[in-house]
């Protein structure tokens, strides 16, 4: 095998690794970081089944006056081989209200979980779930 073919093979494998693993992970990390930082401009333009992100969160948490008053957490989901083969990475963001530090013992916090897929071209395909957490 010539050095030229070895270099071409290495370059192709590097590009595939970047597209399959690094780029989706980078997009998912940026998405979660924006939400945690409170930068909702990007998120407000995302639509979920025709509804804007902000409107959907406020609909799920009717007592929430504004997104920036919620407890916000998030992170990356586990990276499975199935995700690598589909060039994607899962991330989640959780909005909770009222904030845990304002709850009395025995009271509940209502939470909205948003699960997203980060793919090569951006974040897409959002799934919504709701639950409650006790202090």
Structural notes for this entry:
The protein has helices at 3-37, 41-44, 53-60, 81-85; strands spanning 47-48, 51-52, 71-76, 88-97, 108-119, 122-134. By secondary structure, it is α+β, with helices and mostly antiparallel strands. The chain has a single domain (3-134), classed as Nuclear Transport Factor 2, Chain: A (Roll). The strands form 2 sheets. It has a 4-stranded antiparallel sheet with strand order 3-4-5-6. Strands 1-2 form a two-stranded antiparallel ribbon. It is elongated.
Question: How much helix, percentage-wise, in residues?
Answer: 25-40%
Tell me the overall shape: elongated
Q: Low-confidence runs (pLDDT<50, min 5 residues)?
A: none
Task: Please report the number of helical segments.
Answer: 4
Helix and strand content put the structural class at: alpha+beta
Major sheet attributes:
4 strands, antiparallel
As for the CATH topology, it is Nuclear Transport Factor 2, Chain: A
What is the terminal-to-terminal distance?
Answer: 64 Å
Element layout with pairings:
Elements: H1 3-37, H2 41-44, E1 47-48, E2 51-52, H3 53-60, E3 71-76, H4 81-85, E4 88-97, E5 108-119, E6 122-134
Antiparallel strand pairs: 1-2, 3-4, 4-5, 5-6
Which structural traits does this protein have?
6 strands; 33% strand; elongated; alpha+beta; Nuclear Transport Factor 2, Chain: A; 135 residues; four-stranded antiparallel sheet; single chain; 4 helices; two-stranded antiparallel sheet
């Amino acid at each position: 095998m010539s050095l030229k073919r070895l270099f071409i093979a290495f370059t192709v494998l590097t590009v595939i690794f970047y597209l399959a693993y690094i780029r989706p992970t980078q997009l998912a990390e940026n998405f979660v970081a924006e939400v945690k930082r409170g930068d909702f401009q990007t998120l407000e333009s995302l639509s979920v089944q025709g509804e804007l992100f902000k409107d959907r969160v406020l609909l799920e948490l009717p007592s929430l006056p504004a997104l920036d008053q919620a407890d916000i957490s998030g992170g990356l989901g586990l990276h499975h081989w199935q995700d690598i083969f589909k060039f994607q990475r899962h991330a989640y963001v959780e909005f909770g209200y009222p904030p845990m530090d304002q709850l009395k013992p025995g009271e509940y916090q209502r939470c909205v979980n948003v699960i997203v897929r980060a793919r090569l071209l951006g974040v897409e395909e959002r799934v919504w779930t709701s639950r409650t957490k006790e202090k």
